[in-house]
From TrEMBL:
InterPro entries: Caprin (IPR028816), Caprin-1_dimer (IPR041637). GO terms for molecular function: signaling receptor binding. One of its GO terms (biological process) is positive regulation of canonical Wnt signaling pathway. Residues 61-129 form the Caprin-1 dimerization domain. Keywords: Coiled coil. This is CAPR2 protein. Residues 4-58 form a coiled coil. GO terms for cellular component: cytoplasm. It comes from Dasyornis broadbenti (rufous bristle-bird). Belongs to the caprin family. Pfam families: Caprin-1_dimer (PF18293).
Amino acid sequence: QLKLEDYKDRLKKGEALNQDQLEAVEKYDEVVHNLEFAKELQKTFSGLSQDLLKAQKKAQRRESLLKLEAEKKKLRTILKVQYVLQNFTQEHVQKDFKGGVNGAIYLPSKELDYLIRFAKLTCPERNENL
């Protein structure tokens, strides 16, 4: 653009320009227009790029939150199952299931023994002093 402006100034001062330089001066407005268009296009692409980066970050945050919620849900389920299984290790709970009383369903001794053994294998002992 600077070169074209120099040609334009030289032409105004009355200097003789060769054919290529004259053609370049004639296309000065077109070149300036194309440069302005290119700048606007670059701004648009830059804005789109920023929007895309923001959208990607937002999607990553959302995905992280969904994963965290899924992990929390799994942990809650595990803790609920452990709580239920630990109750089978208490004598009064075992009596209720052996007799089918106090809202407990009847469980044969063999099935109850399986649950008790499973509870002891899967549920860590709690230290009440901690």
